[in-house]
Amino acid sequence: MLRALFLAALLPATLTAATLDVQVRDARGAAVRDAVVYAVPAGRAPLARRTAVMDQKNRMFIPHVLPVQTGTAVSFPNSDDVRHHVYSFSPAKTFQLPLYKGTPANPVVFDKAGVVTLGCNIHDSMSAFIVVVDTPFFEKTGADGRVTLPDLDAGRYTVHVWVADARGEPRPVSVNLTGDQRVQLSFVASAHARS
Ligand SMILES: [Cu+2]
User: Fold this and answer.
1) Helix count (H) and strand count (E) of the chain?
2) The domain spanning residue 127 has which CATH number?
3) CA–centroid distance, residue 127 to ligand 1 (Å)
């Protein structure tokens, strides 16, 4: 057992883990920002990030899109001087944090996969999305519409893309990673999140 671990440690990371490069564009070919790309393993997903933060600043939620793994505890600090009243009616997580300032004592645990739409009862313009996924392998695209998911163990994965305001998600893609490869995928989202 010990010897096997030692040998594994000697192998360069590139030989034991695969990397996924994913590009998301809209129908016109423009890069889509803030798309959530996530790879769900066929077997049991390891638990990684367990906490996250959804801040409120200048009467906005920051970030606008927050991907988390199922089971993650999210804290909702209010960094403004005015009070906010955070709520969600989404089936994946229905909750509210009545009018408050500062940081609520208890974070909210997102224990069910799905998209949770956030709002504030006081400020109608405040909105954000928490995208709860059954995998620790996720990332958000930047302005170039690209993400890299590194360190994926060998095995079969289903790669999904979620885009706010899109008319339906692009069809998920199944990939079989051997643990020693770099795979490129591209998706077309039916509508641009923000133009
Ligand atoms: Cu508010």
Assistant:
1) 2, 17
2) 2.60.40.420
3) 9
